[in-house]
Amino acid sequence: MPQRSAQEIRASIEANRMELGRSLEQLRAEVTEATDWRKHLVRNKRNVMIGAAVAGFVIGGGIAGVGGLFRRR
Question: Could you write out the DSSP letters of every residue in the chain?
Fold first, then answer.
């Protein structure tokens, strides 16, 4: 195994440090993008509205159904 000089080792460490810094910045940007719920909400506004309408209909129907059970007794 060839021996590396101290200067080569320092240069390698510095290169690794720079690469790690770039990777960290890229990861930070990707996490910010993935967790931006407002952007996802705007992008999927139609689907969110449909889901909210369906959920309201189901919940409203469930409440009405349970209320009807209690009124029958």
Answer: -PPPPHHHHHHHHHHHHHHHHHHHHHHHHHHHHHT-HHHHHHHTHHHHHHHHHHHHHHHHHHHHHHHHHHHH-
